[in-house]
Each structure stands twice: as structure tokens, then as C-alpha cells.
């Protein structure tokens, strides 16, 4: 062997035996975890404002998928305390029930603190703006609810405000929110708002333009009958609505609450 000549390297021959098949061991794979704190507890709420009253109504069924959590979980909450005459404001929430109750407690505290500090009840307009602020400040982790606020405004007329989870709101005459709202709103548009309805023409009118049917001021009894018909119709078509109907009517004299039986299956 010459100087500086490397010694030969001897390697073992490669075995021709095939390797065992790879076992699919899922425990060694990365697993994605998700956190979703919300759920939809079903139901529907309805609001109507009149010339001297406002009404909020909702069913009392709470669901989780095809399961019924409870048959009595009210979605309409009077705000304030009778001692300070602040119970002329009413809040309704539908969606995630836990968020709805948390939002109600915060707004209720706002109404009570305003009464203690100023010696008078908070106005509907101020409470409506405050509710928008409460929702907006939680916009990155929002209250997963659709809210409505009803009461009597400064002119003595019924008023209704509807909100989205981020705090945007507007004043409405009639509104239904919740999973079953798509079934109820066409009925309300036809019977309350008179959308796309026109006054009948007589032979003397000729070929002039059609005149839209004007909106009417309904009495409390008429509105109560419409609300019952609307909820009884929806319970026949939607499994998340039923058990009992909670109706809260707000007037200048205070708040009246009634319960009406609904379909339970």
C-alpha cells in the first residue's frame, strides 16, 4: 500500500427485504384546537310601537340544536326599579341566552345608577344610545344577541329600537328578530306596515297612479291579536319557538306583562 493511500471501505450489502408498512399513528400528527364560546338558543322576539304604547313579545323556549334546555326562559326584561319609576323601558334579547342576560344586567345597572345620581329616570333616547355604546365597546368579542329596546319617548309616543351585535341601531315601527324572523316578518309587513298595498280604485278615478295604503294606528287590542296570530303561526313551522308567549306592553302608566300558552311540541 502506497503512502497516503486511503484504506478501502467495506460496506455491508443492502438488504432486499422490504420495510414494514408505515402505521398511520394519528397521535403523532398535529391537532388543531378551536375555541368557540357561542351557541344559539333559538326563539324569536317581536316589537311593535303604537301612538301611545310600545310592545315587546317573545317565546320562552330555550333550545340547543334539537334539544330543549328549558320551557321557561323569558327573553323580555323590564329595566330599572319601581322605586325610581324607571320601569318604562323594556329590553329584549334573542340569540346566546347567557350573553343576553349579561347585557340586560349591564343596562339595568346603567338605568339604576342614572336614577340614583340624577334623581329622575333615564330617558328612552339616552338609554338607546347607551345600549349602542355597550354593544360597540364589545365589538371584538361581541354579545352574540340581537337586541330591541322599547319605551315611551319624550313626546309620549311609543318607540322601538333594534340593534345588531356591533351596536348599530335604528328606530322601527315593527321588527321581529331571531332564527324564525324570516317566517314572521312577511306577516308583519302585510298586516302592520302594509308594504306594497294600495288603496282600491273606483270607476271615477280613471287611469291615475295608484295611491299607497297609509299606515294605521292600531289599538292595543288589535296589536295583541296580531301578536298572538303571528306567534301561533310560527310555532307551527319552527321547532325552536313554543311553550309560552311573553308579552310586555309599555305605556305612560307603567309596564304590563302577560303570558299566553303556545304549542309545546
Layout of helices and strands, plus pairs?
Layout: E1 45-49, E2 54-59, E3 62-64, E4 67-70, E5 76-78, E6 90-95, H1 97-118, H2 124-136, E7 145-152, E8 158-163, E9 169-172, E10 174-177, H3 181-193, H4 220-235, E11 244-251, E12 254-261
Antiparallel strand pairs: 1-2, 1-10, 2-11, 3-4, 5-6, 6-7, 7-8, 8-9, 11-12
Helix pairs in contact: 1-2, 3-4
What would you say this structure looks like, in words?
- With 265 residues, the chain is α+β, with helices and mostly antiparallel strands.
- It has helices at 97-118, 124-136, 181-193, 220-235, and strands at 45-49, 54-59, 62-64, 67-70, 76-78, 90-95, 145-152, 158-163, 169-172, 174-177, 244-251, 254-261.
- The chain is 24% helix and 25% strand.
- The protein has a five-stranded antiparallel sheet with strand order 10-1-2-11-12. A five-stranded antiparallel sheet has the order 5-6-7-8-9, with helices on one face. It has a two-stranded antiparallel sheet with strand order 3-4.
- Helix 1 (97-118) crosses helix 2 and helix 3 (181-193) runs antiparallel to helix 4.
- The mean pLDDT is 87.
Amino acid at each position: 500500500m502506497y503512502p497516503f493511500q486511503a484504506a478501502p471501505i467495506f460496506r455491508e450489502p443492502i438488504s432486499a427485504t422490504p420495510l414494514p408498512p408505515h402505521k398511520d399513528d394519528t397521535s403523532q400528527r398535529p391537532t388543531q384546537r378551536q375555541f368557540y364560546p357561542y351557541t344559539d338558543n333559538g326563539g324569536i322576539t317581536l316589537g311593535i310601537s303604537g301612538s301611545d304604547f310600545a310592545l315587546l313579545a317573545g317565546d320562552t323556549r330555550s333550545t340547543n340544536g334539537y334539544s330543549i334546555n328549558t320551557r321557561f326562559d323569558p327573553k323580555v326584561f323590564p329595566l330599572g326599579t319601581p322605586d325610581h319609576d324607571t320601569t318604562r323601558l323594556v329590553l329584549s334579547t334573542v340569540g346566546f341566552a347567557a350573553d343576553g342576560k349579561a347585557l340586560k344586567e349591564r343596562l339595568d345597572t346603567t338605568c339604576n345608577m342614572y336614577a340614583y345620581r340624577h334623581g329622575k329616570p333615564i330617558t328612552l333616547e339616552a338609554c338607546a344610545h347607551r345600549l349602542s355604546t355597550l354593544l360597540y365597546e364589545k365589538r371584538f368579542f361581541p354579545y352574540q344577541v340581537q337586541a330591541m329596546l322599547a319605551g315611551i319617548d319624550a313626546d309620549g309616543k311609543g318607540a322601538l329600537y333594534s340593534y345588531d351585535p356591533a351596536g348599530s341601531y335604528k328606530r322601527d315601527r315593527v321588527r321581529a328578530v331571531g332564527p324564525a324572523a324570516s317566517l314572521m316578518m312577511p306577516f308583519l309587513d302585510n298586516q302592520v306596515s302594509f308594504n306594497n298595498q294600495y288603496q282600491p280604485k273606483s270607476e271615477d278615478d280613471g287611469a291615475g297612479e295608484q295611491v299607497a295604503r297609509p299606515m294605521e294606528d292600531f289599538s292595543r287590542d288589535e296589536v295583541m291579536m296580531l301578536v298572538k296570530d303571528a306567534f301561533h303561526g310560527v310555532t307551527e313551522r319552527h321547532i325552536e319557538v313554543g311553550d309560552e308567549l311573553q308579552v310586555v306592553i309599555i305605556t305612560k302608566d307603567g309596564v304590563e306583562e302577560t303570558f299566553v300558552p303556545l304549542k309545546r311540541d
